[in-house]
Each structure stands twice: as C-alpha cells, then as structure tokens.
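Lab notebook, design round three. We kept the backbone fixed and only want residue identities now. Task for the bench partner: fill in a sequence for the structure below.
Input structure tokens:
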C-alpha cells in the first residue's frame, strides 16, 4: 500500500491562495452581474428563459431558484458559471475571438474575451490540484485580474470611485 504524503502549505502560500480566491469568489461574480445588468433587464431575461424550451429545460434546480429570485433580487444571486451560461446562450455580448470555451490569446481584448478569461481563471483556481502559490504566480494572477478589470471598468463606464481594477488590487 502506497503511503500518501500531505504537503503542508506555508502561511505565505495560504495567504497568496486566499488573495486569489477572494477575487475569484467576490469580485468575479460582481463583474458578471454588472455585465448582465448592462446587457439586459432581469425581467426581460426571465421572459426569454421561460420562452426558450431548450434553456428552461436545461436549468438545474439551483438555477431555477435563481431565476425565480430575479423578480425581487435582480442578478444578485447569479454566480459566475450561470452568468457565463446566460451571456453565451442568449448572445448578450459578442462571441469571443477564439469562440466560447476557448482560452483567449493575450491580444484578444474585447469584453467577451475578458468574460472568457474570468470563466477560465475561475475554473483553473477552483480546480487546481496544487494549492501552493508562489509569489511570481500571485503577481501574474493579479496582473491579469487588474488588466481585464480595467477593460471591464471602461466597458461598463464605471464611476472612478467604484472600479473593479481598484477593488481587485485592494484584496
């Protein structure tokens, strides 16, 4: 029987991972919710979902509850995965340069490419095997986060006091 060795994370690595997770779990959903708000009113989207048998038939129970809550809560309960699904399915933003599901190149800078980046980064962070995060890796994540945060701020015409790029760097 093979013995497993548990790798103990250093305090610094745990802190770096926690910083990344704060952006992914707190800021990414806010970005996606604001993109939905800019794209379509919640009640209009609810009607579109209800009138589309393919979409309404493919919602899981959590998504169905979110749709019902949209009448009162708007997009407040929509997570990154569901927002991505809605933006993609209903063509609420243009198709990314490399297409949906494909990782954008560094030169692909449209809002839909940044949505694709959010989707890929969220999945890569949540599903990573190693929880070790080096200082260089942390810097790369936050450089990427702040770059697309600035582009999304511009796209959304955000008030300079409430920009995502600043929120990202403050975590």
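Proposed sequence:
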């Amino acid at each position: 029987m093979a013995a497993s060795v548990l790798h103990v994370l250093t305090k610094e690595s745990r802190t770096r991972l926690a910083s990344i997770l704060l952006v992914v779990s707190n800021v990414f959903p806010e970005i996606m919710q604001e993109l939905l708000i800019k794209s379509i009113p919640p009640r209009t989207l609810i009607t579109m979902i209800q009138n589309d048998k393919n979409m309404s038939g493919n919602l899981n129970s959590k998504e169905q509850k979110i749709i019902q809550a949209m009448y009162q809560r708007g997009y407040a309960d929509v997570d990154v995965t569901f927002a991505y699904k809605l933006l993609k399915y209903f063509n609420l933003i243009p198709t990314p340069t490399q297409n949906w599901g494909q990782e954008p190149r560094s030169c692909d800078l449209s809002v839909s490419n940044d949505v694709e980046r959010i989707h890929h980064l969220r999945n890569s962070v949540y599903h990573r095997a190693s929880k070790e995060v080096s200082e260089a890796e942390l810097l790369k994540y936050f450089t990427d986060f702040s770059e697309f945060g600035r582009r999304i701020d511009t796209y959304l015409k955000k008030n300079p006091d409430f920009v995502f790029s600043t929120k990202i760097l403050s975590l």
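Keep this in mind before ordering anything: The chain has a mean pLDDT of 92.
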